[in-house]
Design a protein that fits this description.
The protein has 314 residues and is mainly α. The protein has helices at 2-7, 17-36, 66-75, 83-97, 106-111, 118-121, 129-134, 146-157, 164-182, 190-201, 209-215, 231-244, 248-257, 262-277, 280-284, 300-312. It contains 16 helices and no strands.
């Protein structure tokens, strides 16, 4: 796996089991992004039978979207001491790199002063972009560091996404990632999701729409038109995929079949599944990973290092 060693900050064989999980979870995010891009904006379809990266008109083969670039930029701010400093650094990096980022959503474009269509205006501030780029920061915090994690995620999200739904969804999904890494290697169950939600929102959880929808997650059905940019709808799609997948290959098949924002759902689902299951060997056995354009995200290694360093200080 020469491609893997070329992007990692350390020799993979020398990493601890938890460091392998974290590293692979970040890599799975980028792989899921590249896998999901060709299916983006399509309606819900029958279970995807493809097991490799497909091409998309007007898109570089194997290329990731803004999801991966923005997530890497966010993870690299974990080196700062305060959430406010990290948020400021992210915005600075975003302003510098925006012209080269593919697929920026309406909220991020609006925050940068870039043009958006009339149809997109009603979405500004309440999309899944904040959750998408901050969810993996949960792995940098132990479950007991809830207050620190929540403050970090909230500050980072609000640079671009200021709605309560966008912030709450981001905080909640980061909790799933924090818990997944800590819990060891196993397949998650519905009761795990219920527990995390209850712990995250405490007494208000059982009265929330999110709680009721997670309780009924086993019967959840994605919209026929595909997954929208709504943060909670995206989160339910991710949790449903992780809950129903038989293995990591199945994650990609299920997530890409949901339609709509498939690159985000594939990326987050693959990353969360690996963080929970720890099945890194099966992940790296997938031949198509070599087709991802790893060269254009060479800074993914520094993002992994940022998580490992921050977590080691806990």
């Amino acid at each position: 796996m020469k491609w893997l060693q070329s992007i990692l900050p350390h020799d993979f064989r020398d990493l601890s089991d938890i460091s392998k999980k974290i590293s692979t979870s970040v890599i799975a995010y980028a792989a899921g992004d590249a896998f999901g891009v060709p299916y983006e904006f399509s309606p819900r379809r029958s279970r995807n039978s493809m097991s490799t990266v497909e091409s998309r008109d007007g898109w570089p083969f194997g290329g990731v979207s803004d999801d991966t670039f923005l997530t890497i930029m966010t993870l690299n701010t974990l080196n700062f001491r305060k959430p406010s400093e990290a948020a400021s650094q992210f915005l600075k990096a975003l302003l510098e790199r925006a012209p080269k980022l593919r697929g920026l959503g309406p909220t991020t474009r609006s925050a940068l002063g870039l043009p958006i269509s009339e149809n997109e205006r009603k979405l500004v501030g309440n999309t899944n972009g904040g959750m998408m780029r901050t969810a993996l920061t949960g792995m940098a915090f132990l479950p007991m560091e809830r207050d620190e994690r929540r403050a970090w995620v909230k500050e980072s999200v609000m640079v671009t996404h200021k709605s309560k739904n966008a912030v709450d969804a981001a905080i909640l999904l980061s909790a799933f990632f924090s818990d997944a890494v800590q819990e060891g290697c196993r397949t998650p169950k519905l009761e795990d999701f219920e527990r995390i939600l209850s712990e995250e929102f405490e007494e208000i959880a059982k009265n929330s729409t999110a709680y009721r929808q997670i309780i009924g997650l086993s019967e959840w059905l994605s919209p026929a038109q595909g997954i929208s940019l709504d943060p909670f709808e995206t989160m339910f799609a991710v949790l449903w995929t992780v809950l129903n997948a038989e293995n990591i290959s199945d994650v990609f098949a299920l997530a890409s079949s949901l339609g709509g924002d498939t690159d985000t759902v594939c990326a987050l689902s693959a990353s969360l599944y690996v963080a929970w299951s720890g099945d890194v060997e099966t992940f790296y056995a997938m031949d198509w990973l070599r087709k991802v354009s790893w060269d254009e995200i060479s800074d993914i290694g520094s993002a992994i290092e940022s998580i490992l360093k921050r977590r080691s200080q806990s």
